[in-house]
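Narrative summary of target 7.
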Amino acid sequence: WPTVSQLIILQGKARIHFVLEIIRWLAGVLTTIICLVWLNWGMMSLLVAPLVANIISLVIESWFIVKNSLIRIRRKWISEVVTVGLPSIPANISEALGNMADRYFIQAWLNLTQLGFYSHAERYINPFKLYNKSFMKTIHSETLEAFSKSDTIAIKKIEEIMKFFFSILVVVGILLSLF
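Modeled conformation, tokenized:
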């Protein structure tokens, strides 16, 4: 998803990116609800939902790549993948393991009921992550353009927009935690 996501952002298709992020999120939510309510899978639904969301994302990514690019294999790009891509594999694996480690270790020392409360509380941060990621990817191309041209007016405008957006996120987060 990150590669296709960056292609969409650099092409200036923020609405498509937003819709795809929402589709991924809805797929995860709907899969979790279906697995919990109709299939009664319990904790297994927390593992199945990301898998289904990622499979849907993979299908959409494949469709986007086939539709918007011609695949040509060149020696330059193979060497680029080997020199840049392969060294990033350990970092990506450690990031994925880091995202799962807290749940594993908590489950090892707590019972599933207490883990359920933890998972429920952990889900409150997901909308903030989604909004933050979508917003940052939406302004990514404008930010690259402004900084590459050293356009101080555009940079100030982006800075003001970011301050406004993050202040809204802070206020909503505080209200959510209080009420």
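Residues 64 and 96 are 25 Å apart (CA to CA).
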